[in-house]
Amino acid sequence: MFSRATRLGGPAALAVLATSVLTGCSHGAPAKAVRTTVVAPSGCSGPKDVSYSGGATAYDVPVPTPDHRAVATQVGAPTLSQVSSGESSYRIASVHMSARVVQNGSYVVSPGSLVMLDPQGRACPRPAHNPLAGAFPLTTIDEQRGADGNVAFLVPADADLANYSVVYVENPTDRRALAKWSKQGTAPQRTVTDACDGPRTAYDRKGVATVHFGRTISIINGGIGVTVTAQAPTPRTLGPSPTVPGDVDGVAVSLSVTARGAEAYVDRRQFVLLDGGGRTCRFGSIPSPGETLTSTLVKPNGSGRYTIIFWVPKGAQPRSWTLLQLTSPTSKRAAAAWSTSAK
């Protein structure tokens, strides 16, 4: 792993010693001293085989990386460790890495995905064994458990790490980088949005009066009468869950449904939540924690209370809401509408 100048040793050294001895015993001019010099490395010893297209990100900024951007990886600025490398010409550089799931699923993360590059783009080798405390492990992460730790690299003893960079490769054998961090990288501006992130979908609301949340609406659908009361959306903490992405917050809507005279079918997919700009709020195909309605039959003259949960981007604060109840799960025709801005 190391590249350094060759030192005299073995047979070559014996030959030099013999020559010196013989010369010293002669009556000619005294022999000149033989000096050897170890040249300090000018950079890292790895190849320049990592390719990356795109701008660099500032250190300590999480970047979506593998598997359809489902994992966010964050690295800190490299620092020189006091742990000995065992080689006078090299030191151990430490890079703190953390990874967390921002969508769904389980993913394997490896310290081998990080590569440190010197200013010339040469890869810095890693020691055979990571000597740093809190070493980043080869592990599996999911919505409830992330991973963090230190990754070790070998750099020249006089390296100025301010000019080094760190890249992420999804597969250690694939040298195409998916992300890059450096001191010269930029941090994206974080803004708090007031919008949901679902599509803008046109719904037919002709002839449907919009009322305030908390009001009861009577609906005749297929000859069956139903009354529905919807309460105003409220924030709901979802926490880590296999059914919820890690980059969303929850919004809960409470419903009260009563069937009049006959059994009434109610389906979760009939309810659509819109922000003030008409953008739909996403929800899971699998119920979020605390959600109590998938589909149900309300008995004649019976009633039920349900909670449905929508998703908004984490930190989002929409200023107004509109809830639509559609005539069927696949329809674009509204049967009822509630809004925080109803007149």
Automatic annotation (TrEMBL):
Keywords: Signal. Residues 1-28 form the signal peptide. This is Uncharacterized protein. PROSITE patterns: PROKAR_LIPOPROTEIN. It comes from the Bacteria.
